[in-house]
């Protein structure tokens, strides 16, 4: 019997993305799977039920009840997990360790969970890397929010009323989100700098037209991520950064350390030293923020400086974000399908290192 792949509507507040696009639905059907969707799953991303039906999907209100494989963007609530088929496979951004009750619900049903945020960061895994694909959209949207909040033009303009100098934009963190933010700010005509404690990011920042801000502190770590700074390194970084921020118009913060709260980089004292009318957009708001004054989900003004902590920015670009996410998910699920049937190769590190709980 063909594997049943099910997708239900996302229930998280404000979530517009979907884990299955009509394109990937068609590919799953071609791979021998039966695809069942709850009506309206793609409405937030502007994918119609008719488009899914044309791609071979079956529409059913209880689409995931008998599904062998369930796809999601954000984790289903605990009641929905309890209603899944015993031993079903669940694929998505699940974060089981962030919620003990969720982890217990997954364990109680014998769910084979694949939290895609655990995917090893290898060359082979790039086509399945949901963190990177969604971070790209987040970085793009963050700069547009900054441009909207700023009381200044981003580009230099020569007008009959005189010349307008370009805004000075600093992107903190040069991961995928940061690099996309640099590229977007540059396209908007700003004078762009990029800061990262990993010195190897200099070439990437400069390749996008940004200037690398060197504060004399290196925190190169393993796997392409930054390590935590020592107290002495952090103090020196803070001193130099505080001085530099006095002449910056816009900061977009994107720095993250996997599995840990976001590092605090921009202090309240630094914000107090910035020019009135300056803007900070903090992508790290969901994990505590890179700015000490960030309030997740809010935009506040502190001594004339706007500090925005937007949440789930990728959902703001739901259509393209969903297309990328769905391709990531399809590429991962393809590892589980052999001639239309489920087959787990636990010698494959992408499966073995992503599955939760980890297998002995």
TrEMBL record:
Alphabetical list of InterPro entries matching this protein: Ala_DH/PNT_CS2, AlaDH/PNT_N, AlaDH/PNT_NAD(H)-bd, NAD(P)-bd_dom_sf
Keywords tagged on the record: NAD, NADP, Nucleotide-binding, Translocase
GO cellular component: plasma membrane
Record function comment: The transhydrogenation between NADH and NADP is coupled to respiration and ATP hydrolysis and functions as a proton pump across the membrane.
Protein family membership: Belongs to the AlaDH/PNT family.
Pfam families referenced in this protein's UniProt entry, alphabetically: AlaDh_PNT_C (PF01262), AlaDh_PNT_N (PF05222)
Domain (Alanine dehydrogenase/pyridine nucleotide transhydrogenase N-terminal) ranges: 6-138
Main EC class the enzyme belongs to: translocase
Highest rank taxon of the organism: Bacteria
A biological process from GO: NADPH regeneration
TM region(s), chain numbering: none
Classification via PROSITE patterns: ALADH_PNT_2
GO MF entry, a single one: oxidoreductase activity
Catalysed reactions, semicolon-separated: NAD(+) + NADPH + H(+)(in) = NADH + NADP(+) + H(+)(out)
EC numbers for this chain: 7.1.1.1
Annotated protein name in UniProt: NAD(P) transhydrogenase subunit alpha part 1
The UniProt record lists the keyword Phosphoprotein: no
Protein's organism: Thermomonas brevis
Annotated Alanine dehydrogenase/pyridine nucleotide transhydrogenase NAD(H)-binding domain residues: 147-309
